[in-house]
Amino acid sequence: MRRWMMVLLVAGMGLVSGQVARADEAATTRPTTAPATAPGQAKLPHLEVDVKKRQVRVECQALNVEMPLEFFCVVKGTNEHESVLRSQVKPSQLHLALLMIGLKPGTPVHYDNATDKWYAPQGPPLHIWIEYQKDGKTVRYPAYRCMRNVKTKKEMPPLTWIFTGSRIMEDGKYAADVTGYLVSVVNFDLTVIDIPEIASSANETLEWEYNPKLVPKTGTRVTMILEPADHVEKDGK
Predict the structure, then answer these.
(1) Residue 70 neighbours by CB under 8 Å, 6+ apart
(2) pLDDT digits over 205-218, tens only?
(3) What range does the domain containing 118 cover?
Protein backbone atom coordinates (compact mmCIF):
# COMPACT_ATOMS: atom_id res chain seq x y z
CA MET A 1 0.00 0.00 0.00
CA ARG A 2 1.25 3.44 -0.86
CA ARG A 3 2.59 5.47 2.04
CA TRP A 4 -0.13 8.10 1.69
CA MET A 5 -2.84 5.42 1.89
CA MET A 6 -1.16 3.83 4.90
CA VAL A 7 -1.24 7.17 6.69
CA LEU A 8 -4.97 7.44 5.95
CA LEU A 9 -5.62 3.92 7.20
CA VAL A 10 -3.69 4.46 10.44
CA ALA A 11 -5.45 7.74 11.02
CA GLY A 12 -8.81 6.14 10.36
CA MET A 13 -8.31 3.26 12.74
CA GLY A 14 -7.09 5.72 15.34
CA LEU A 15 -10.28 7.70 14.88
CA VAL A 16 -12.41 4.60 15.39
CA SER A 17 -10.45 3.68 18.53
CA GLY A 18 -10.90 7.17 19.88
CA GLN A 19 -14.64 7.08 19.22
CA VAL A 20 -14.93 3.73 20.99
CA ALA A 21 -12.96 5.01 23.99
CA ARG A 22 -15.11 8.13 24.29
CA ALA A 23 -18.28 6.07 23.99
CA ASP A 24 -17.12 3.71 26.76
CA GLU A 25 -16.26 6.68 28.97
CA ALA A 26 -19.65 8.26 28.34
CA ALA A 27 -21.39 5.01 29.26
CA THR A 28 -19.49 4.97 32.59
CA THR A 29 -20.14 8.57 33.55
CA ARG A 30 -23.72 8.78 32.24
CA PRO A 31 -25.11 5.22 32.36
CA THR A 32 -28.66 6.34 31.53
CA THR A 33 -27.65 8.22 28.36
CA ALA A 34 -26.77 6.41 25.14
CA PRO A 35 -23.44 7.51 23.62
CA ALA A 36 -23.66 9.73 20.55
CA THR A 37 -21.39 7.37 18.65
CA ALA A 38 -21.59 3.63 19.28
CA PRO A 39 -18.54 1.37 19.55
CA GLY A 40 -17.13 0.51 16.14
CA GLN A 41 -18.62 3.62 14.58
CA ALA A 42 -17.02 6.91 13.61
CA LYS A 43 -18.17 10.26 12.28
CA LEU A 44 -16.37 12.49 9.84
CA PRO A 45 -17.76 15.69 8.35
CA HIS A 46 -20.82 14.75 6.29
CA LEU A 47 -20.37 11.00 6.63
CA GLU A 48 -20.62 8.15 9.12
CA VAL A 49 -18.68 4.89 9.19
CA ASP A 50 -19.92 1.63 10.73
CA VAL A 51 -16.89 -0.65 10.81
CA LYS A 52 -18.80 -3.69 12.06
CA LYS A 53 -21.49 -3.42 9.38
CA ARG A 54 -18.87 -2.35 6.81
CA GLN A 55 -21.06 0.54 5.78
CA VAL A 56 -20.43 4.19 4.91
CA ARG A 57 -23.29 6.71 4.96
CA VAL A 58 -22.77 10.03 3.17
CA GLU A 59 -24.94 13.14 3.53
CA CYS A 60 -26.12 14.30 0.09
CA GLN A 61 -28.75 16.31 -1.72
CA ALA A 62 -30.71 15.32 -4.82
CA LEU A 63 -30.29 17.05 -8.17
CA ASN A 64 -32.70 17.12 -11.13
CA VAL A 65 -30.37 17.95 -14.00
CA GLU A 66 -31.25 18.15 -17.68
CA MET A 67 -27.79 17.17 -18.97
CA PRO A 68 -26.69 13.57 -19.66
CA LEU A 69 -24.83 12.17 -16.68
CA GLU A 70 -21.13 11.71 -16.10
CA PHE A 71 -21.42 11.24 -12.35
CA PHE A 72 -23.69 9.78 -9.73
CA CYS A 73 -22.31 12.04 -7.00
CA VAL A 74 -20.00 15.07 -6.93
CA VAL A 75 -18.88 17.62 -4.38
CA LYS A 76 -21.25 20.56 -4.06
CA GLY A 77 -20.23 23.43 -6.33
CA THR A 78 -18.39 21.28 -8.88
CA ASN A 79 -19.95 19.25 -11.74
CA GLU A 80 -23.48 19.41 -10.37
CA HIS A 81 -24.94 19.93 -13.86
CA GLU A 82 -24.17 16.31 -14.79
CA SER A 83 -24.73 14.41 -11.54
CA VAL A 84 -27.62 12.76 -9.63
CA LEU A 85 -26.39 13.83 -6.19
CA ARG A 86 -24.16 16.45 -4.61
CA SER A 87 -22.44 16.33 -1.23
CA GLN A 88 -20.23 18.47 0.96
CA VAL A 89 -18.10 15.48 1.94
CA LYS A 90 -14.39 15.75 1.21
CA PRO A 91 -13.31 13.07 -1.30
CA SER A 92 -10.17 12.15 0.64
CA GLN A 93 -12.35 11.53 3.71
CA LEU A 94 -14.64 9.27 1.70
CA HIS A 95 -11.47 7.42 0.62
CA LEU A 96 -10.49 7.15 4.28
CA ALA A 97 -13.93 5.83 5.23
CA LEU A 98 -13.66 3.05 2.64
CA LEU A 99 -10.24 2.12 4.02
CA MET A 100 -11.79 1.94 7.49
CA ILE A 101 -14.30 -0.72 6.38
CA GLY A 102 -11.46 -2.86 5.05
CA LEU A 103 -11.28 -1.94 1.36
CA LYS A 104 -8.09 -1.22 -0.55
CA PRO A 105 -8.17 1.08 -3.59
CA GLY A 106 -7.48 -0.40 -6.98
CA THR A 107 -6.24 1.25 -10.15
CA PRO A 108 -7.95 4.09 -12.06
CA VAL A 109 -8.55 3.90 -15.80
CA HIS A 110 -5.26 4.40 -17.62
CA TYR A 111 -3.63 4.43 -21.02
CA ASP A 112 -0.56 2.32 -21.77
CA ASN A 113 1.77 3.74 -24.42
CA ALA A 114 3.53 0.41 -24.97
CA THR A 115 0.32 -1.38 -26.00
CA ASP A 116 -1.47 1.73 -27.31
CA LYS A 117 -4.51 0.68 -25.30
CA TRP A 118 -6.83 1.97 -22.59
CA TYR A 119 -7.24 -0.29 -19.54
CA ALA A 120 -10.42 -0.38 -17.47
CA PRO A 121 -10.28 0.68 -13.82
CA GLN A 122 -9.99 -2.02 -11.19
CA GLY A 123 -10.77 -2.22 -7.50
CA PRO A 124 -12.95 -3.87 -4.84
CA PRO A 125 -16.64 -3.87 -5.86
CA LEU A 126 -19.19 -1.66 -4.13
CA HIS A 127 -22.95 -1.54 -3.89
CA ILE A 128 -24.40 1.96 -3.61
CA TRP A 129 -27.87 2.86 -2.36
CA ILE A 130 -29.84 6.04 -1.79
CA GLU A 131 -32.18 6.56 1.16
CA TYR A 132 -34.57 9.43 1.86
CA GLN A 133 -37.93 10.33 3.40
CA LYS A 134 -41.03 10.13 1.22
CA ASP A 135 -44.55 10.68 2.57
CA GLY A 136 -43.29 10.16 6.11
CA LYS A 137 -41.57 6.88 5.31
CA THR A 138 -37.96 5.93 4.62
CA VAL A 139 -37.46 4.63 1.09
CA ARG A 140 -34.30 3.03 -0.25
CA TYR A 141 -33.22 2.20 -3.81
CA PRO A 142 -30.08 0.89 -5.52
CA ALA A 143 -28.22 3.84 -7.01
CA TYR A 144 -28.32 2.42 -10.53
CA ARG A 145 -32.14 2.57 -10.54
CA CYS A 146 -31.89 6.34 -10.11
CA MET A 147 -30.64 6.59 -13.69
CA ARG A 148 -32.34 5.74 -16.98
CA ASN A 149 -31.38 5.56 -20.63
CA VAL A 150 -31.60 8.90 -22.41
CA LYS A 151 -33.33 7.39 -25.46
CA THR A 152 -35.38 4.45 -24.20
CA LYS A 153 -36.15 5.84 -20.71
CA LYS A 154 -35.53 2.36 -19.28
CA GLU A 155 -33.82 2.08 -15.89
CA MET A 156 -30.09 1.37 -15.86
CA PRO A 157 -29.46 -2.36 -15.44
CA PRO A 158 -27.78 -3.54 -12.21
CA LEU A 159 -24.37 -1.95 -11.74
CA THR A 160 -21.58 -2.65 -9.28
CA TRP A 161 -19.14 0.21 -8.78
CA ILE A 162 -15.47 -0.17 -7.79
CA PHE A 163 -13.25 1.69 -5.35
CA THR A 164 -10.36 2.85 -7.52
CA GLY A 165 -9.15 5.69 -5.36
CA SER A 166 -8.08 8.98 -6.89
CA ARG A 167 -4.52 9.98 -7.74
CA ILE A 168 -1.99 11.97 -5.74
CA MET A 169 -0.96 15.03 -7.73
CA GLU A 170 2.60 16.30 -8.10
CA ASP A 171 1.94 18.95 -5.44
CA GLY A 172 0.86 16.21 -3.00
CA LYS A 173 -2.85 16.98 -3.15
CA TYR A 174 -5.45 14.26 -3.39
CA ALA A 175 -6.77 14.84 -6.91
CA ALA A 176 -10.46 14.26 -6.15
CA ASP A 177 -10.28 16.97 -3.49
CA VAL A 178 -9.49 19.33 -6.37
CA THR A 179 -11.92 17.97 -8.97
CA GLY A 180 -14.80 17.08 -6.64
CA TYR A 181 -15.29 13.71 -8.34
CA LEU A 182 -16.87 11.21 -5.91
CA VAL A 183 -18.79 8.56 -7.89
CA SER A 184 -18.58 8.35 -11.70
CA VAL A 185 -20.77 6.68 -14.32
CA VAL A 186 -18.10 7.15 -17.00
CA ASN A 187 -14.35 6.79 -16.53
CA PHE A 188 -12.20 9.42 -14.83
CA ASP A 189 -8.77 8.69 -13.39
CA LEU A 190 -9.32 11.38 -10.73
CA THR A 191 -12.51 9.96 -9.22
CA VAL A 192 -12.80 8.03 -5.93
CA ILE A 193 -15.32 5.47 -7.23
CA ASP A 194 -15.68 4.41 -10.87
CA ILE A 195 -17.40 1.75 -12.98
CA PRO A 196 -15.54 -1.46 -13.88
CA GLU A 197 -15.58 -1.16 -17.66
CA ILE A 198 -14.34 1.31 -20.25
CA ALA A 199 -16.86 4.13 -20.68
CA SER A 200 -15.92 7.34 -22.46
CA SER A 201 -16.86 10.77 -21.17
CA ALA A 202 -17.27 12.11 -24.73
CA ASN A 203 -20.59 13.95 -24.98
CA GLU A 204 -21.81 11.89 -27.92
CA THR A 205 -21.41 8.62 -25.97
CA LEU A 206 -23.22 9.65 -22.76
CA GLU A 207 -26.30 7.47 -22.37
CA TRP A 208 -27.75 8.07 -18.89
CA GLU A 209 -29.97 10.70 -17.28
CA TYR A 210 -31.52 10.97 -13.84
CA ASN A 211 -34.71 8.96 -13.22
CA PRO A 212 -37.48 11.35 -12.11
CA LYS A 213 -39.57 8.42 -10.87
CA LEU A 214 -37.10 7.68 -8.07
CA VAL A 215 -34.92 10.76 -7.58
CA PRO A 216 -36.64 13.34 -5.32
CA LYS A 217 -36.75 17.03 -6.14
CA THR A 218 -33.58 19.12 -6.11
CA GLY A 219 -32.35 19.92 -2.63
CA THR A 220 -34.00 16.94 -0.93
CA ARG A 221 -31.77 15.41 1.73
CA VAL A 222 -30.55 12.00 0.61
CA THR A 223 -28.21 9.53 2.26
CA MET A 224 -25.82 7.70 -0.07
CA ILE A 225 -24.95 4.31 1.39
CA LEU A 226 -21.83 2.41 0.31
CA GLU A 227 -21.12 -1.22 1.15
CA PRO A 228 -18.79 -3.95 -0.13
CA ALA A 229 -20.52 -5.94 -2.86
CA ASP A 230 -20.46 -9.09 -0.73
CA HIS A 231 -22.74 -7.33 1.78
CA VAL A 232 -26.27 -8.53 0.98
CA GLU A 233 -29.14 -6.06 1.15
CA LYS A 234 -32.70 -6.11 -0.18
CA ASP A 235 -33.85 -3.77 -2.91
CA GLY A 236 -35.94 -0.98 -1.39
CA LYS A 237 -39.35 -0.38 -2.94
Answers:
(1) 79, 82, 83, 184, 185, 186, 188, 201, 206
(2) 679 999 999 999 99
(3) 45-228
